[in-house]
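The protein record quoted in full:
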Amino acid sequence: MAKWGEGDPRWIVEERPDATNVNNWHWSEKNAGSWSKDKLKSLFEGMVIEEPGLGRITLKELTKCEGEATVSNRKGKLIFFYEWVLHIDWMATSYEDPKKDIKGTIEIPNLSEENDPDEIDVSVSLSAGGSVGDKIKEYLRKNGAENIREKIVQYVDTLKKEYATDLIKPTKGQAVVKQSKTLISPASVNNSSNMSVRKTTDNIEKMDLGCKIGTSKINVTQTFKCTADELYRAFTQREMVVAFTRGDVKLEVEKGGKFEFFGGNISGVFESLVPNKQIVQTWRFKSWPSGHYSTVTIDIEQKEDCTELRLSQSGIPYNEVDRTKEGWRNYYWESIKRTFGFGAILI
C-alpha cells in the first residue's frame, strides 16, 4: 500500500506557484454574486438606445438585482451557475413631444445559464408618457430588447473569460518554478470554517497508509417541493440521476451495490436502502487518500406540503469539509431542484 504522498498525484503539490488544488481535481468555487451585481450595474446604468425620428431612451437605474452566481472547477472543467431577476428603470425623450415625461421599467425575470440569450425574457412597462410613451415602449420591447440582450451576452462572456480564469490552476509544464514536491498533510491544513460543522476531534481514523487522518462530520437539512417517493427516486433511479448529474453514471441500487457519479469523481457503496425513507452509503471523493471512505446517511421525511431531507456525513477529512459541503449544495441539492422543479430556494 502506498505511503502518504505516494501514488495518487493529486495529494502531491507539483511545480505550482500557489500549491493549491493539485491537478485541478478538487471542487473549487468562487462566489461571483457581488462581482456580478457590480458588472450588471455598470453594463445597464447609463445605457442609451436611440432611434432616429422616434426618441432617445436611457436606462437610469438597476433597482432590483436578486439572485446568485458561482463559478466552479471540477476536474479541470469550469461550471457556471447564475440566476438573476433584474428590474431597470428607464426614461425617454420623444422627438415628437420633447417636453413629455416618459418613463417605465424593464423586467428580466430569467437571466440564467439555462437560457440562451434569445430565450431571456425582456418585459417593458410604461408608468408615464401616454400615447407618445406607448410608441417608445413598443420600440423598446420589440427592438431595444436586442440591445439589452447584447449587454447580457457581455456579462456572460466577461464572467467566463475574465472572472473565472484563476480557478484553473497551472499544472506541471505550465509554470516555471523550483523543482520540488511538498507533501500535504492534515496537520498543515487550516481547520477553521465559517460553516456549522461539528469537529469530531476524537474521531481520528487510523488508515493503512502509514498515517492518521483527522475527520469531521457535517449535518445538512434541505426541503424539496415533491413527494418522498419522487425524492427517493431522484437518488436511486438511473434516468433521474443521469439528469441531475448531467453525465453517465454507474448505479447498482441494492445493498452492496456500487455507484459512480461525475466521471468517477464520486463513488461508493450502498449499505442499506429503505424505500422513500433512508439511504445509507459509503462515499468518497476521488481526491481523498486511497481507501478512505466517509459514511453518508440520508433520511427522507414526507411533510404536509414538502419533503424534508436530512443528511449526516461522517469521516470527512478535515481539509475537505467545506469543499464537500459546497459540493452537496452545488451538484446535488441545487441541481436536483433546478432539474426536476422541486423548488429553487435553498435553506
